[in-house]
Amino acid sequence: MYLNILFLPFFAASLSGLFGRLWGVKGVYFINTISLFIITLFAFIAFYEVVLSKTTVTIELISWINSEHLKVTWSFFYDELTVSMLIPVLIVSLLVHIYSIGYMGEDPHQQRFFSYISLFTGLMLILVTGDNFIVMFLGHSISAVLYSNI
Q1: In whole angstroms, how large is the CA radius of gyration of the chain?
Q2: How many CA atoms lie within 13 A of 21 on its CB side?
Q3: Rounded to an integer, what distance in angstroms lies between the CA atom of residue 106 and that of residue 95?
Q4: Residue range of the domain that includes 13
């Protein structure tokens, strides 16, 4: 479930980017909004598990640098602060997605916009849940570059 919180926005962004023309605008709306709603529900479940049960979760995917005195891993950390920040980030992102459906109604490149905004949401989740400063920096810097191109 914790990895689904992180990778479902990237999955929705890739589906919107690759199959957006095939599915049309309403299909892209549906995929992105439903996936973000599911992620928000997962965040509430994670809030219950982490905050109310007093547990922390660390997910280590790969090791980037493993030298004598330095170990840098691609890992994510869920504690009380992290899941408390996930909920407002995801609720605001869900509201932005819903608002964008009406706001971008006449734009000819809606599929691309929704792909970018789902990618931006995924990068913000990496920024919030990153276990070390390098992962957090990558989430922030890539999202800043993406946001400047939207």
Answers
A1: 16
A2: 3
A3: 19
A4: 2-149
Q: How far apart are CA 112 and CA 5, in angstroms?
A: 22
Q: Which amino acid is at 144?
A: A
**Amino acid letter, 4:** N
| Segment 67-95, tens digit of pLDDT | 888 888 888 999 999 999 999 999 999 99
Q: How would you label 87-108 residue by residue, b for 16+ Cβ within 10 Å and e otherwise?
A: eebbeebbeebeebbeebeeee
Half-sphere exposure of 106 (CA within 13 A, CB side): 0
Binning the chain into helix, strand and coil, the percentages to the nearest 5 are 75, 15, 15
Burial class for 133, CB neighbours closer than 10 Å (0-12, 13-18, 19+)? exposed
Quote the CA–CA distance of 88 and 82 in Å, as a whole number: 11
Instruction: Pull the structure tokens for residue 125.
Output: 């989740």
pLDDT band for position 101 (50/70/90)? confident
Domain count, the chain: 1
What is this structure's pTM?
0.86
Note whether 12 and 32 are within 8 A (CB): yes
